Amino acid sequence: MILSMTGFGKAAVVYKNTKITAEIKSLNSKQLDLAIRLPQQYREIELSLRNMVAKSLERGKVDLYVYTENTEETAPATLNIPLLTAYKQQLQQLSQTLGVPEPQDWMATLLRLPDAIKAENTSTETDEGELEAIKQAVENAIAALIEFRTQEGNRLEKFFRLKIENIRVLLADVMQYETERVAKIKARILDSLSKLDGVEYDHNRFEQEMIFYIEKLDINEEKLRLHNHLDYFIDTIDNGHGQGKKLGFISQEMGREINTLGSKSNHAEMQIIVVKMKDELEQIKEQVFNVL
Fold first, then answer.
1. What is the pTM of this model?
2. The domain at 7-75+125-151 falls in which architecture?
């Protein structure tokens, strides 16, 4: 089973009169690239949240967003007039400095700024229970993200197995042209020699050189190595998650063998098969970047 690096998770926990919501999303990345946004009063547990995410998600570009809502129906709140006044003065100064127009709708602009509205009679201090509730919300969101990654990983696994099988079928199709290919190459060389009037050549030496030339075009080793890479790719999928980088390396090796097959084929139908194999492999490579 493999896991995708792409996913989204959301969870909410209610503590006293506060609803705490955690949202987390991830995209593909070579390492863990984590960004956390949470209210200022919870900054003391940011390191703990980072450790929770790093332990569970391993890799990916991860964004964690924690926000709170007051669940009281008549939660008292007032406009933060001193802060809004300061905001407006700074924005007017910024407008003059940069030579840009002032906002047309000052009210909408100011109310979107941080802490424009403040709750009455609420303490900025958080107790231990509230901090634990935040951790629980984040943990639940991570679990939802992992479930999403698992579902997406199952889809990717089916996709990879299909593409690998397609390459196997194409590789088997190569065999029907191998004997014909050698005969055509030899016939083409003999035909070219026959067109050279008055040229005599040693037939025994010609056969020796022909054998040497044909050996250089032999593709048995490339076929065997490609077949082994295909097996190794599937074995790696079966060995569990955390194999994204390895799958990427294997797909690169598969590409080398397919390219060599193409350079040695010297046959129109085989070249078509090689192009089809490259197309299947390219689709694999595009999706491997999303594997954890």
1. 0.71
2. 2-Layer Sandwich (3.30)
